[in-house]
Specification:
Layout lengths: L43 H18 L6 E6 L1 H13 L5 E5 L2 H13 L5 E5 L16 E5 L1 E2 L4 E2 L14 E4 L16 E5 L10 E6 L1 H9 L13 E2 L2 E2 L14 H17 L1 H21 L4 E3 L11 E6 L2 H4 L3 H17 L16 E4 L6 H23 L1
Parallel strand pairs: 2-3, 2-4, 4-7, 7-8
Antiparallel strand pairs: 1-9, 5-6, 8-9, 10-11, 12-13, 13-14
């Protein structure tokens, strides 16, 4: 293939967005025919369908029976903010941030909750903070997988088993793709539209017994918005974790999530999902290893995400450009690929370094990523030729 020759084949599914993510293979709106529509979500059928989503979530993710699972409003953001506003303030907080969403939680803790005893442990895009410096006598807040940097924590070994504080984990692009050591985690949140490609607006809140004990023994000093209230009269509102949502859910979006869970069960559960994501990430990383103009933004393989794979352009001529010109070059690649129908929505996140971000979660087919890489080379060659002219 010469530099400007277009590849012969395109990906069958060119949807590589990092959120909302690609729908599962074989997806059809016909699969939502069992949605409880035009009915109250508080009806017997409505609550049963919500509870089904909770039960399937527990089974697929292997969540311990004594952990509570609730459906929350406002996506992962609503679920995680409900956790922070309800639980933090009882002791000091260590908060880890190495990408955009983690930095957003820093803003919540320091500028909205205005906690006094906060240690912010941050790192540049592509890197992790020093995990050995975390003090587990304090509450710890982190993003398990950095969607906008393509960097994840390598495992949960660094989290103390005998911790006195709670661990609060935003895992919205990690669940259903990476190992989650539940014994190390007290709060975990995610949203339907990330790894499993569900529809937006709803988040999942998972609480350990230690988190429930904190909720029932500690009252924050600040007013609590209704959609964040997890207790009443000093006791957990148990119904939230049985399908009685705080506010009205979309039963159509719920059915879409149930469809994704059914697909996960059909292909072999969590093991199959992780295997698919690992194979997808490998396809991209193998290509990067033999391509001299691009590299993984993550500085080492053990912290590189298998879902949100972030690419930086290391070609010397492009790297020599100023930041604005580098950003323009990356946007040109995105536009070229979109125009050819080869890739949709693969620009880097607005706060991240200029580059590309390609979703590799389980709902993406490896064959589509393999078909994408020649198009990436074509787009780079085309944009580089334009730059030279």
């Amino acid at each position: 293939m010469t530099d400007l020759q277009k590849p012969a084949a395109r990906p069958a599914n060119a949807h590589f967005s990092s959120g909302p993510c690609s729908k599962r293979p074989g997806y059809s709106l016909d699969n939502l025919k069992d949605a409880v529509l035009g009915r109250s979500h508080r009806s017997g059928e409505g609550k049963a369908r919500l509870k089904l989503a909770i039960d399937k979530t527990r089974d697929i993710l292997g969540i311990p029976e004594d952990y509570h699972i609730g459906i929350m409003p406002a996506s992962d953001t609503g679920a995680f903010e409900a956790a922070m506003w309800s639980l933090l303030g009882e002791r000091g907080v260590d908060i880890l941030a190495w990408e955009s969403f983690g930095k957003g939680w820093v803003t919540d803790v320091t500028k909205q909750l205005k906690l006094d005893d906060v240690r912010v442990m941050d790192a540049e895009y592509g890197e992790l903070p020093d995990l050995t410096a975390v003090d587990f006598a304090r509450d710890v807040v982190l993003t398990w997988n950095g969607t906008t940097s393509g960097v994840k924590v390598p495992n949960g070994d660094w989290i103390a088993d005998d911790r006195a504080g709670l661990t609060l984990v935003d895992a919205t692009s990690a669940v259903f793709a990476q190992d989650i050591p539940w014994a190390k985690i007290d709060v975990l949140t995610y949203s339907w539209q990330k790894v499993m490609g569900g529809e937006g607006q709803h988040g999942m809140l998972i609480l350990s017994p230690r988190a429930v004990a904190r909720l029932e023994s500690y009252t924050p000093a600040w007013p609590m918005p209704k959609i964040f209230r997890l207790t009443k009269g000093g006791k957990l509102i148990d119904g939230i974790f049985k399908g009685e949502t705080i506010n009205t859910p979309s039963m159509l979006a719920l059915e879409d999530y149930v469809d994704a869970l059914n697909w996960a069960e059909d292909i072999g559960g969590l093991t199959a999902l992780k295997t698919r994501a690992d194979a997808n990430a490998k396809a991209l990383n193998d290509w990067m290893d033999k391509t001299d103009w691009v590299a993984n933004l993550a500085v080492s393989p053990e912290i590189a995400s298998n879902t949100s794979v972030c690419l930086k352009i290391v070609d010397p001529d492009v790297a020599a450009l100023d930041d604005a010109a580098q950003a323009a070059f990356a946007k040109r690649l995105v536009k070229l690929l979109d125009g050819e129908g080869a890739a949709k929505d693969i620009g880097s996140y607005r706060d991240a370094p200029a580059g590309l971000r390609i979703w590799a979660g389980a709902t993406v087919e490896t064959s589509d990523l393999e078909a994408l890489t020649p198009w990436l080379e074509w787009a780079f060659a085309t944009a580089k030729a334009e730059l030279a002219s």
